[in-house]
Amino acid sequence: IGPAPGISTLDGCELEGWIETLYAGKCIPEAAVLQLCKKATEILIEEGNVVGVPVPVTVVGDIHGQLHDLIELFNIAGKCPDTNFVFLGDYVDRGYYSVECATLVVALKVRWPSRIWLLRGNHESRQITQVYGFYDECLRKYGSATVWETFTKLF
Known about the structure:
This protein has helices at residues 12-23, 30-46, 67-77, 98-111, 126-132, 134-142, 146-154, and strands at residues 57-60, 84-87, 116-118. By secondary structure, the protein is mainly alpha-helical. A three-stranded parallel sheet has the order 1-2-3, covered by helices on one side.
């Protein structure tokens, strides 16, 4: 049996482990974030600018680093792959768990690319993330700006 659909070159067990770690409110290693963002970039490049989204779908806006609220949303609406999601952006800034929120939605996109869609909000820009906290959070949690740079390129 091969990897589940959508995983491609990532090891399925490793990806599932990262998702579990993120659901637990913990950061995954920097190398894992870089690998996820690289794969997500490949997936997003292949998607069209306008896509059809199968219904029913749960539309989610403005997470702003509120990981506990995001997890509660999954508890109420259902988790991927049982529920389709469209995220309207603003994953980061303001809350204490911007890194975990952004990484979790990217990991879910990589794991189930045909069940989750990601849009870019105004907080997914270099300038805004430097003002409202994502840049500082990445420095605090990873000790360098590498994760921040990787996410801003993905956004």
